[in-house]
Amino acid sequence: MQQQRKNRRRRRRRIKWGRLAAYIAVLVVAIFAVRGTIRLLTKSSDKETKQQQDVAANENNQSKDAKEADEATIPDSSKDTENEEDPKEPTEPADSTQPGKTPQAEANPEEEEKPFTLADLDNPDGFDERPAENGFALENQQVDINGLDTTRLDWGQGGDLDEWNRPAGCMQYQEKYGKYNAYFIVDNPEKKVIYLTLDEGYENGYTPQFLDTLKEKNVHAVFFVTKHYAESNPELMQRIIDEGHELGNHSVTHPSQGLSSQTIEEQTNEVVGLHNYIKETYGYEMHLFRYPAGIFNEQSLALLNNLNYKSVFWSFAYLDYDVENQPDPTESLQKLVNCLHPGALYLVHAESETNAKILGDFIDQARAQGYEFKVFE
Description:
Layout: H1 2-73, H2 103-107, E1 153-154, H3 168-177, E2 182-183, E3 193-200, H4 207-217, E4 222-225, H5 227-232, H6 234-242, E5 246-249, H7 264-282, E6 288-289, E7 295-296, H8 298-306, E8 310-312, H9 329-338, E9 344-349, H10 353-368, E10 372-374
Helix pairs in contact: 4-10, 9-10
């Protein structure tokens, strides 16, 4: 009996100490939980405070910048009688390489200067008012030509057409090589625009007739010339420039195996040699290049890009360059009209008698179908 009492007392003590231990464990857990919560709240508060400080700092900086901009636009009448060339506030020289840029646009810092685009040439009559008479000077982003593909490519637009009557090959090459400022077509299916280009390897007596027709129809075009042509026909060259057409670089010698068959140095000389001659003789800055015979490779495209040129191919051309075997004018006109498509780059040879006869009718029929002629820039 006495032993049973001892056992009961022993069990009560165990239960008592067990409960006490449980209470202590719960208390410890609660303490740690409270401390963790306090830490989280403190970090959140610190982060929020820091964000508020950052926002306030940004607002102060913006306010300061706006104040400085306002002060810069307010003329200081006290300086009217001082020397215009203030060494503390140098003025930037006018950039003659950006056409269409007016002093009014430069004087208003609130208006962000927009790059010149083909849309700037729009007018109600569809006539392209040239923004400059001396060409453009491009500044292309330079690329590394080392290791680029040197496989010869012979360009031809092919016969497969998309839903807008555009050659599928043009779209594929434009996507692949457009990064080098190469143009096989102008990808804008929503706008019915044609860009007319004429290749001038030599003079066959028809260029004045082409120029007369273009002037009559209020159309501007790109004339791609070789150095031989430029040297042999100074009056026609000057007329092309004076009447607002674009001069394009067709190389010095028009190598029969293509520009890309030459070394990098030789290719550079073919382009720069004609470029410098035109600039020195006519004060004209060329920036468009057409590959002789349409032969090129990827490395050559990158080289032309680095020479600050656009490489202009075509989305329409036909066998019109054989002066001894000229195509029928009626059939040729129908071919030109049937191949109309948005963003078309038309290549016609200016030594062609057939082209000289049908050019005016082609322009009229294209316009009758809603097409507008623009000069490629």
